[in-house]
Amino acid sequence: MQTARLTVHPDFQIGAVDPRIYGSFIEHLGRAVYSGIYEPDHPTADGDGFRQDVLDLVRELRVPIVRYPGGNFVSGYNWEDGVGPKDQRPRRLELAWRTIETNAMGTNEFADWAKKADTEAMMAVNLGTRDGDAARNLVEYCNHPGGSYWSDLRARHGYKEPHGFKTWCLGNEMDGPWQIGRKTAEEYGRVACEAAKVMKWVDPAIELVACGSSGSGLPTFPAWEATVLEHTYDHVEYVSMHTYYGNRNNDLGNYLARSLDMDHFIRTVVATCDFVKAKKRSRKTLHISFDEWNVWYHSEQHDAEMTPWQVAPPQLEDIYNFEDALLVGLMLITLLRHADRVKMACLAQLVNVIAPIMTENGGPAWRQTIFYPYLHASVYGRGTALNLNIQSPTYDNKEFGDVPLLDAVATADGENETVTIFAVNRAQDGPLALDGDLRSLPGYRVTEHIVLENADMKATNTAANPHAVVPHSGGDAAIQDERLTAHLPKLSWNVIRLAKGR
Predict the structure, then answer these.
(1) Is the pTM above the cut of 0.90?
(2) What are the tens digits of pLDDT across the range 5-15?
(3) Cα–Cα distance between 169 and 71 in angstroms, integer?
């Protein structure tokens, strides 16, 4: 059996973990909204039409922030369509996803849902077909206390108190050829700068996210970031990142190494941000909002065959298997490893659409395989991220070279004197022995070793069998003489929880 070694020291700090790193995303796409979070005829629906079974699962995940209403959708969205009396709202052709948008749910309804879900809203404005004028009006409608046209209109719509949305995205994926109103970096940078100015003139307390590249594979990356930030650096707090991965060639070793690509992507964007900072001689450090990330490939054939112009058809409904859960765990580890700069992130998306939660119309809701690493990180991964100084055996991969069998990160909660280690064993041929140096944590003990493992890499959770892939607390992690030992099963996600003994 091969052995990997790590050192846990409270001084090996990466940075404070912003809880918003465990955010998610709801777009007017497929069944994310309609029959996802909102289904008035569902047996569990409350008086506002929200599915209580879904709300229970969202609260279980402790999702701190949810991006809304898109996504590609927002680049053709007139926000005014989604406010006021529902029977007066227009039905629109939704061009991004070729569906019919009923506008039965809009800004105020989402604010209501977010409160019930114990989460905050990350709002996005349309900079595809619109500009700063519509954006500043939306900020006024949502956040201004009263005494102006748009804030008084909100009050007439039944919402006297402002929503106070703090975080706003300046458009979505404006570099993408698929995007409504696609712009060059120069065009987008100018529009985003002017929108940011007037939005903050309406509400100086808001934070803004500029659109970064839609992915590291675009030919304009990372020159896009450099140009956009030349215009927006002084007016925004974050730049966005998006990435999705898939195992189209059924090459597990390569698939589980994709998190190394994510790591390189983050490092490149950080370097570009710091280049612009130096060029502008600014004292401000820009942070990252990784507001779309996930596995996405299972549903591509189905979506290509979909009949257009339906209301809330099944779209992007990836049914996740066990190996997908491992990669999601690896991506979470990568985000935590960059907690000093990645301050927000959104698993895309939350319900039905490439999501940890699935539902049937009128039927049950259940947890997909990827639900569990997301849950564990969100619940236990709070506090300060720690670098573990890992020494791991590797395997050879044509694309990524030497890939470590062990990938891991830890978080420390000093107030409660707890440490949590998140670890994935990529080894396909057997368990990996873990040897941890805990001399800097005297008196700590193992309180739990959670393991997510499965003999079938393609195993899935379904409505008929929702517990095919579930974690267990049967791991063997132990501490003796200030050394942590554990056997990490082959191809497994592990959560080792430590606490100061009393």
Answers:
(1) yes
(2) 999 999 999 99
(3) 10
Chain centroid to Cα 142, Å, comes to 24
In the chain the domains, ranked by start, together with CATH numbers, are 3-9+386-500 (2.60.40.1180), 18-285+308-316+331-382 (3.20.20.80)
Beta strand pairing call for 418-425 and 406-413: antiparallel
| Of 128, 149, 134, the residue nearest 79 (C-alpha) | 134
Identify whether the C-beta of residue 370 lies closer than 8 Å to the C-beta of residue 322: no
Per the DSSP assignment, residues forming a β-bridge with 450 are: 495
pLDDT at 502: 65
Task: Give the helix ranges, DSSP H, for 282-345.
Answer: 300-304, 322-337
- Say whether 173 is catalytic: yes
Which of 109, 292, 317, 323 is an active site residue?
A: 292
Given the residues 173, 194, 225, 237, the one annotated as active site: 173
27 counts as catalytic? no
Q: How far apart are CA 417 and CA 403, in angstroms?
A: 33
Calculate the alpha carbon distances from 251 to 161, 165, 257, 295 in Å.
53, 43, 10, 15
Q: Is 3 exposed, middle or buried (0-12, 13-18, 19+ CB in 10 A)?
A: middle
The tens digit of pLDDT for each residue in 439-491 reads 999 999 999 999 999 999 999 999 999 999 999 999 999 999 999 999 999 99
Q: Per-residue pLDDT tens for 396-412? A: 999 999 999 999 999 99
Closest listed residue to residue 300, CA positions, set 246, 256, 358, 242? 246
Task: Tell the residue number behind the tokens 């709300």, with chain if given.
Answer: 55
